[in-house]
Structure formats: structure tokens, C-alpha cells
Write a structure and sequence with these properties.
Distance between the termini: 76 Å
Helix content: 25-40%
Radius of gyration: 26 Å
Low-confidence stretches: none
Shape: flat
Number of strands: 7
Length: 179
């Protein structure tokens, strides 16, 4: 092999190593500062103060994307009433929003939508899944009617209907019946 080819290979290897190091070490995520963590803990206390029938525990900051580190303006909490759900509270310019109302009204939304479908389509059974778990609302102890009027997302619903000894036809039941 020629001397120029060996020099080129060495330069290429050094260049690849420098690129790998630059990629790995320049985008390292920064952890929350103690002040940012304390602020997030106080946001979770806001949940405890607002929703007195539940108890929330601070888990940490919401994870950011690849190499971004934790989200300093989104805290994650655990709810005693809904232990399998991730509850978050977000601070946008001093205004707090959370997905807690969406989590607590998911079953009510599913029942509400099920009743609409069963009434309009005369089906024997209807399964509904409300898929809007990430919908944000203000940190407010609102009732279901207010949630339904202002924050419900009907475009994030999965419905399965069943009727014995029959089939749903386009002539008898159209999408227009839902509107």
C-alpha cells in the first residue's frame, strides 16, 4: 500500500473518533438544579391543594427527548387514586396545566359516549375507549359537565359496536346520525 493511503486511513479514523466524541459529549443532558426540582415539588403541592380527595407524590421531571435531559417545566406525579396513571403538571409562563382532570374523567367520558352510540345505533353492546389521556386542563377541580363542554376530545375515541343477528348498513345508520 502507498504511504498516502495509510495517511488517509489514519486521518479518516481520527476524524471519525473526533466526530463520535463531539456527538457524545456536546449534547449531554443537564439534570435539574435543586431550585428547579424544588419548584416542581411545589407544583405537585398545588395538585394536592386543588384536588383534596386525592394525594399526589412528586416522581421527577418528565423525560425530554434523546440527549435533551429532563423537562424543567413539566413535573410527573403519582396519584393515590390512579396509581397506574402518570399525572403531570406543566408550568407555562406561571399558568399551570395538568392531565389529571382527563385521567379522572376518562371512565365518565367512555360511559357518556357509550350511551350516545347505544341510543343512536340500537346496538346490543358497545365498547368505548377514550384515548385523550394527555389532554391538558387548568389545575382546577372542575366538574364533569365543564370538562365535557370545554376539554373533551371526541376525535380521540375508539368505538366497537355489536348487534346480534344483524349488520349495520350504510342506508340505516350513517355517520350523519352522530353529528
Amino acid at each position: 500500500e502507498s504511504k498516502d493511503m495509510n495517511t488517509f486511513r489514519k486521518a479518516a479514523v481520527i476524524g471519525m473518533v473526533v466526530c463520535m466524541c463531539a456527538t457524545l459529549f456536546t449534547g449531554c443532558p443537564r439534570p435539574l438544579t435543586n431550585k428547579e426540582r424544588d419548584e416542581q415539588i411545589s407544583w405537585v403541592e398545588e395538585l394536592n391543594d386543588t384536588f383534596k380527595k386525592d394525594k399526589f407524590e412528586y416522581i421527577g421531571a418528565q423525560a425530554g427527548g434523546y440527549m435533551e435531559g429532563p423537562e424543567k417545566d413539566i413535573a410527573v406525579a403519582k396519584s393515590k387514586k390512579y396509581p397506574d396513571q402518570e399525572i403531570w403538571i406543566m408550568n407555562r409562563d406561571g399558568k399551570f396545566q395538568t392531565n389529571y382532570n382527563t385521567v379522572r374523567y376518562t371512565e365518565d367520558m367512555e360511559e357518556y359516549i357509550r350511551e350516545i352510540f347505544e341510543e343512536r345505533f340500537y346496538c346490543d353492546s358497545c365498547e368505548v375507549e377514550y384515548l385523550a389521556r394527555e389532554t391538558a386542563t387548568p389545575v382546577e377541580n372542575m366538574d364533569f359537565d365543564k370538562y365535557l363542554r370545554k376539554y373533551a376530545h371526541f376525535n380521540r375515541v375508539k368505538v366497537i359496536m355489536y348487534q346480534k343477528n344483524s349488520a349495520f348498513t350504510w342506508e340505516d345508520q350513517t355517520v350523519n346520525e352522530l353529528i
